[in-house]
Amino acid sequence: MKAIHLYEFGEPEKLVYDSAALPTPKAGEVRVKVAAAGVNFVETYQRRGWYPLPLPVIPGAEFAGVVDALGEGVAGLHTGDRVATAAGAGAYAEYAIAPADKLVPVPDGVTLEQAAAVLLQGMTAHYLALSTFPLKEGDTALVHAAAGGVGQLLVQIAKMRGAYVIGTVSTEEKAALAHAAGADEVILYSQSDFGSETRRLTGGKGVDVVYDSVGKTTFQKSLNCLRPRGMLVLYGQSSGPVDPLDPQTLQHKGSLFLTRPTLGHYTLSREELTWRTGDLFNWLAGGKLKMRIDRTFALEQAAAAHAYLEARATKGKVLLAP
Ligand SMILES: NC(=O)c1ccc[n+]([C@@H]2O[C@H](COP(=O)([O-])OP(=O)(O)OC[C@H]3O[C@@H](n4cnc5c(N)ncnc54)[C@H](OP(=O)(O)O)[C@@H]3O)[C@@H](O)[C@H]2O)c1
Q1: Which of 21, 27, 139, 263 can pair with 72 through a Cys bridge, CB separation 3.0 to 4.6 Å?
Q2: What torsion, rounded to 10 degrees, do the Cα atoms 277, 41, 197, 245 define?
Q3: CB of residue 44 inside a 6 A radius of ligand 1
């Protein structure tokens, strides 16, 4: 089969398009013929060696497609079934492997492209808004990178929960997308100070929660946007890792809460996984949630897809099509 290999860490060109042996599913695993694979920021960190993986590796964890072969002991799945996962292996390929218990069936009314696009970013937005800081009617939230993949979904889900949402974005074009997703206010953090703007928009009070995926360039100021006992949810580092923090700072700034969550810890059980994916698929099929697929690259253009993500150019989901 054709696949993308990473033989050494480095720039996007290190993603090499070549051939690989068809993977064999072990006990409890399933081989899937990939229809679309999600490209995620974490794979750029892995490619750079920030989150090192044993090399060589076929990157990617998120894909949707049809079941092609079953490992020993897999029950309840059949060849030809439409499935998707955010926790597979070797997604940047024509065929990929996933543990059977991490696969979910894709219902009618949801395309394989939509499923590959929504799972990782959608489950992230779901756990952030429903579990990490469970938003309720009237809560105020600041969502950074609100026109991004997770950002647009998080804004929509926060609005479904009845929150007042302030988004930050870097350009006017992205501001329009954040508004379209439902943000009540949008701050161009490339042009104005989002700390003082957030204070102004909340009548000096500060927000209940900040969802910060940008990291290095926003983190310190995000702490200043919170009301006393508010929560900073740092869930990414698109601009780089944040500097170390003295816990005393949380006291000075209002007895704040800080958490650094990751999706794996919010999909610990099968029930949790199917709850989140079930909500997402229902919302998508019912038109309640809009999934913006920004660009689909051919598999051999994986390097260009990474460069696109890192250039801050994406406005929604990026997919690879084998
Ligand atoms: N913890 C988890 O469970 C989890 C799960 C999924 C994703 N994530 C993280 O969430 C973040 C967002 O993921 P995503 O896939 O939805 O990406 P994304 O938000 O679509 O893309 C990143 C956005 O971050 C903003 N940004 C600010 N400074 C940047 C910089 N120096 N370089 C690049 N981008 C910069 C840009 O928006 P503006 O131009 O508007 O500033 C950019 O579009 C990533 O950091 C990812 O690792 C975490």
Answers
A1: 27
A2: 100
A3: no
